[in-house]
Design brief:
303 residues
């Protein structure tokens, strides 16, 4: 019984042989005859046709060498497609190690190509499939001979982590959210957003609010000497910045553009209190900045 490669070679050979047999008839074809011509013209046409069929034959059809090259190329391609050495045996993911998107999710589509010829793998389609996760900013697929598919991914960087009941998320600066496990959540050293409101199914923030909270977390150590421990949304929707030094800065609600725009004034008011208050060793429990023109200090110091 012939192998797949032999059958492919035979099929190609039969096709090329048929082309060679049929070629002279096609070269001799000159179209339909014209009526009303003279005998001299008809003889002239016959002489020209005879010249085309004999002297011009080397230019009208494929040569033996070109047919042989095509046949050899076809056989080589058939061998490479069927060769076990070129069947995908490994799918690697770079860039997801220690990341938030599991490597198994990135390679989910690519593993289906294992065992298939690497020459039939559509790298662009694999990249498009992996990039369905909005948390991946770029995905590139490389096919390396003889049998390796490599997927390079770049994840977005989280700036905040969000806890809402038993739901855990991270959010990037552009407002992209990703749900993660509790173990991943606890392993991240990022400012925490804790939502204590009831009846809220999913806690999301506009990208403008994310940017403001991120900027507060970055500026707070330089302004107060304390780190942001968490941004607390209480049951009434009032936002408080709880600090690592034990006191809180009450910002109020951050639902409207005007409320978000006021945050910069609140931070300026907080910075102005450095000459009056010891932020690192507080004798107070909170600073209310809802009215930045008249901040209120009160509460008991942390025990």
């Amino acid at each position: 019984m012939k192998s797949g490669i032999e059958e492919a070679g035979s099929a190609i050979a039969r096709a090329k042989a048929a082309a060679l047999i049929d070629a002279p008839a096609r070269r001799g074809f000159t179209g339909s005859a014209r009526s009303g011509g003279s005998l001299r013209k008809e003889r002239g046409r016959r002489r020209r046709a005879s010249g085309w069929a004999s002297g011009g034959a080397s230019h009208a059809g494929p040569s033996i060498a070109s047919v042989g090259a095509l046949l050899v190329g076809g056989l080589v391609l058939a061998v490479m497609l069927a060769a076990p050495a070129f069947r995908v045996s490994s799918v690697r993911v770079n860039g997801a190690s220690g990341g938030l998107v599991p490597a198994s999710l990135v390679r989910a589509e690519a593993v289906q190509s294992v065992g298939k010829s690497i020459f039939t793998v559509n790298g662009a389609a694999l990249a498009a499939s992996a990039a369905k996760s909005s948390w991946l900013s770029s995905v590139t697929v490389h096919l390396a001979l003889p049998a390796t598919v490599t997927i390079d991914v770049v994840e977005k960087q989280p700036v905040l982590r969000i806890e809402h009941g038993t739901s855990y998320q991270v959010v990037a600066a552009d407002g992209t959210y990703l749900s993660i496990s509790r173990a991943q959540f606890l392993s991240l050293h990022l400012p925490l957003v804790s939502d204590q409101r009831q009846g809220v199914q999913r806690f999301t923030l506009p990208s403008s609010t994310v940017a403001v909270l991120h900027s507060i977390a970055l500026a707070f150590p330089g302004t107060t000497g304390c780190q942001v421990a968490q941004f607390l949304w209480n049951s009434s929707g009032v936002v408080t910045v709880d600090t690592s030094c034990g006191w809180g800065a009450v910002l109020g609600r951050l639902n409207t553009d005007s409320q978000i725009a006021q945050v910069s004034q609140q931070m300026d008011a907080l910075a102005a209190l450095r000459t009056h208050l010891d932020f690192a060793h507080p004798s107070f429990g909170y600073i209310n900045l809802e009215d930045p023109s008249s901040p209120a200090v009160g509460g008991s110091p942390p025990s």
